[in-house]
Write a structure and sequence with these properties.
CATH class of the domain at 11-51 and 64-92: Alpha Beta
Structural class: alpha+beta
Largest sheet: 4 strands, antiparallel
Strand order of the largest sheet: 2-5-1-6
CATH topology of the domain at 11-51 and 64-92: Alpha-Beta Plaits
Radius of gyration: 14 Å
Number of strands: 6
CATH architecture of the domain at 11-51 and 64-92: 2-Layer Sandwich
Shape: globular
């Protein structure tokens, strides 16, 4: 399996972020080809040092890194990435890679 992790910084307006994220962005992202699962961690998000600087963290699961790369290159993947400018006022960091159980 492989995962995409999107870490959203605290937005200027959390209520507007949540409204847009769940009503507009999630439906766009769920159309990405070969997406197996879509999970979120939402605030308040903690860390070992205390409150984390993130409002929401999304975890998207795919079969492989190659599936992620193909998904991101698809029209649906490009639309999802382009949509970030519409609501991610606190910034977003996106990471992806293969996973292993240890």
């Amino acid at each position: 399996m492989a995962k995409v992790i999107a870490m959203y910084g605290r937005p200027a307006d959390p209520v507007a972020f949540n409204r847009y994220y769940f009503s507009k962005h999630v439906p766009i992202a769920k159309r990405i080809p070969n997406l197996r699962a879509y999970e979120i961690l939402r605030g308040p998000i903690g860390s070992l040092e205390g409150p984390a600087p993130y409002h929401l963290i999304a975890v998207l699961t795919f079969d492989s890194r190659a599936a992620i790369e193909a998904a991101l290159a698809s029209d649906e993947g490009k639309a999802t990435a382009a949509d970030l400018a519409n609501f991610a006022t606190g910034g977003v960091h996106i990471y992806f890679g293969d996973t292993d159980a240890v």
